[in-house]
Amino acid sequence: MPPPVRPPSRLLAPVAIVLAALPSLLAVVRDVLRTRAELVAENALLRKQLLVLRRQVDRPRLTAADRGWMVLASLAL
């Protein structure tokens, strides 16, 4: 009686690597295709979030001006 046939694991390893890397690869493609204006808006929004975080001790509390600025910045994205 011949031994049972098992799929060779050396063939499945590259497939698993590609499937694991696929989300990252798609994110890179998405980032490459973004316009400069989108990148500038995202950068400004992230800088504003850092300013808010730096001035807070415990939990960041957004002021009405912070929220308004972030709404306008997110609309630009």
Structural features, described:
The chain has helices spanning 9-32, 36-54, 64-76. The chain has three helices and no strands. The chain is elongated. It is mainly α. Helix 2 runs antiparallel to helix 3 (64-76). The chain has one domain.
Task: Provide a short characterization of the protein structure.
With 77 residues, the protein is mainly α. It is built from 3 helices and no strands.
Secondary-structure blueprint of this entry?
Blueprint lengths: L8 H24 L3 H19 L9 H13 L1
Helix pairs in contact: 2-3
Keywords:
mainly alpha
Biggest sheet statistics? none
Measured distance between first and last alpha carbons: 64 Å
Mean pLDDT, to the nearest integer, reads 82
Broad shape: elongated
> What class would the helix/strand composition place it in?
mainly alpha
Strand percentage, roughly?
under 5%
Counting structural domains, the number is: 1
SSE run? HHH
Number of helices: 3
- State the helical fraction: over 70%
Gyration radius (Cα, Å) is: 23 Å
Structure summary, number of beta strands: 0
- Which residues sit in consecutive blocks of at least 5 with pLDDT less than 50? none
